[in-house]
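hi! just following up on the protien thing from before. the input was this:
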Amino acid sequence: MDVTTARMPVNPFEIRHAQQTITETMLQNIPAKDIGDVVKHMAGANVRDYGGIGGIKTVSVRSLGAAHTSVHYDGLPVTDCNTGQTNIGRFSKEHMMYMQLYSGSPSDIFHPARYWASASTLVIQTRTPRFWGDKKMNLDASLQCGSFHSIQPFLHIENRLGEHFSSSISSEYNYSKGDYPFTYRNHTLSVSDRRKNSEVENCRLEGNLFYHNKWRDAQAKIFYYRSLQQLPGAIVYYNPMCHQQMNENNLFAQIHYQNNNLGNKEKDWCRWRFQNNGKFNYSDLQYIDPDYLNAAHYLENNYRQWEYYLSNALMYEWEAFGVNLSNDLSINYMESDLPDFVPPTRFTSQTALAARYQERVGWTGNVALLHNYFADYNTAETTQQTQKFSPSVNIGWGSIPVRLFKWGFRGSYKNIFRMPSFSELFYRLFGTANLKPEDVQEFDMGISMQDFIVTDKLFIHFDADAFHNIVSNKIVAVPSQNLFVWTMINYGKVHITGCEAKLHAIYEPNILLEFSGDLTYTFQQALNMTDPDSKSYRQQIPYTPRHAGNAIIGCQYNNTQLSYSLLYVGERFTQGQNVEENRLAPYWDHGLSLTHTFRFFSDKKAPKKPASRRVALLKIHLEAMNLADKNYEIIRNYPMPGRQFQAKISVSF
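and the predicted 3d structure came back as:
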């Protein structure tokens, strides 16, 4: 999925590892409001959308749950201090350079230890400043307006501070009233209304300082996100009102330093590499229910959590061999204003020793051993300590290109150990103190064919993977009262078997015209294998579709681009028993996008090659989403918005 032009060079190691990439250019073909809508088009990814417009979005890959998907933003892991899962809806897609989704371990072992602590990794990489000639500043600004009173301005400024230093600052504001019309049917009853209590307002600010030379890179980042969100309730006949509200603040600061050659800089084939990462993260969550059934008829819960994170990695490379040792230390602390709440603290140490052998073509492989250590401190109880070793193995082979045709295969095994989060253990409205840790055995086998040229103008890329996961003590969240009040339960054992297939094609009749197509299909059978006497034995676990797929078809002529997208999610069940009353119907989501770019060259004395001339861009982007106008349900009794439109105008210079 990472091809932006027909002749873009392909990473030779990609065909030997299970990974997907969406580039900045591909974003223009996907009608989407945020990053969560983009991730829906990646194979195996199931995006849980809590609340529709502006709502919380988390990613579960291969039915393992969102807590097994580690999100890394500009190289460092992101932790959601409120829910235990990362809300990717808080990040902007406006200045994204690419996204990558790894199933298992990445091909590059030079990473923090947390890369080996999760079953899947979603990497979000934002743009780094690039300046042409003696240019000192880049500016991007956009304004997007859409259905249901939505407005979203964006500003991004980059400055050159010297030969090696640069900076960037970006800001974004998003508001939507969210009062979309819907029709909800339940057997013989039907209700038509507008969504109430669905208003959302959020803003994000981000600043970066960059340093770069031949051997060293450094980046300092500060990020702030604030969200004021009403929580729409479940659709209940004759009682449409709901007044719950959730307010969130998130502030983090992180720094990354990397030295790519600590030893003899004349020997590129033999070198030491080192990286150091540090992060401070703070977030608070306020939940308000003015209709709560207590004596005061009012409920307000406030939660705050802090995280301190430090990571070091040291790697030695010698020709095709490499060894990396990394250690991550973190301290998490949470408090609440509830009178009966006992503040917990968790100390985590994760150490990974990884080795790899990687030829340019032919065989590649890496092995890793991760040591997990957790210590939970509680003023009311003694310290609880947990530790476990988690191994992983990746093997792949890629062919020598023959007539520009490559193929390869891969296989991997990974063991994952996940402690329950503070949210799952201690939140008053849905925490369960006796939850057990999850243990996952993850297996994958895949094949790839890339750079297969049918003719001089047609290019095809194909990937297919089969996987099998065995989960012990799987933690499942099931909604109970509203989008904030959930129930956390353990399933004794879950077996997940499935496959993924991805096809990418580009056809270029001439230099001005290009057709592109992307197809993905995912099959997942996630069965509860706990108790043979239970009615839910060998039944699909809640909210997991067996079949899902999507298609993106694009056509670009000169400076105009038109694309059509299709998303399909099969039937799901809201409870452990797969009976008709628990069934959620399949849904289709169709979208269209149209983009036209105007180019203005400001330096008329420069050479005629556009790449060497200063250029200003004006883009007009139109999108239509959910063309069929279906109020499908991702969560039972929470209908999603129907047909909607948005228009964006942006300038870059």
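Helices lie at 35-39, 422-426.
The domain at 14-652 is CATH 2.40.170.20 (Maltoporin; Chain A).
cheers
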